[in-house]
């Protein structure tokens, strides 16, 4: 088993305890889980097609988050956004 093909470089988000393995949907598109503290909901945020970032919005208030993919990041798959 090989490691992930990318590492997230996250700033400004807190990390709750969570699984360390890469998540992907049925089509194989990588995603991360975000707990949107603004509205108390969870959602998936999918990796952009060019593999440089993850971009998503809160499903209730539409607040946006962008997480860069880069060296020296984290392997965590679960995050919180303000």
Number of helices: 0
Q: What is the mean pLDDT?
A: 78
Distance between the termini: 34 Å
Order of helices and strands: EEEEEEE
**Please, what is the oligomeric state?**
single chain
Basic shape: globular
The helix fraction, in percent, is under 10%
Largest sheet: 4 strands, mixed
Q: Classify the beta-strand content into a percent band.
A: 35-45%
The Cα radius of gyration reads: 12 Å
Structural class: mainly beta
Low-confidence stretches: 15-22
Number of strands: 7
Helix/strand layout:
Blueprint: E1 8-9, E2 23-24, E3 30-36, E4 41-46, E5 53-57, E6 64-69, E7 78-81
Parallel strand pairs: 3-7
Antiparallel strand pairs: 1-6, 2-3, 3-4, 5-6
Task: Please tell me about this protein's structure.
This protein has 82 residues and is mostly beta strands. It is built from no helices and seven strands. The strands form two sheets. Strands 2, 3, 4 and 7 form a four-stranded mixed beta sheet that branches. A three-stranded antiparallel beta sheet has the order 1-6-5, with no helix packed on it. A hairpin with a 4-residue loop joins strand 3 and strand 4. About 10% of the residues have low confidence.
Give a summary of the structure in a few sentences.
The chain has 82 residues and is mostly beta strands. The chain has strands at 8-9, 23-24, 30-36, 41-46, 53-57, 64-69, 78-81.
Which descriptors apply to this entry?
7 strands, 4-stranded mixed beta sheet, mainly beta, 82 residues
């Amino acid at each position: 088993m090989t490691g992930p093909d990318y590492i997230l470089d996250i700033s400004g988000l807190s990390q709750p305890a969570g699984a360390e393995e890469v998540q992907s949907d049925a089509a194989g598109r990588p995603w991360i889980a975000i707990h949107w503290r603004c509205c108390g909901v969870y959602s998936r945020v999918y990796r952009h097609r060019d593999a440089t970032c993850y971009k998503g919005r809160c499903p209730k208030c539409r607040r946006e988050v962008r997480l860069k993919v880069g060296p020296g990041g984290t392997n965590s798959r679960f995050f919180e956004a303000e």
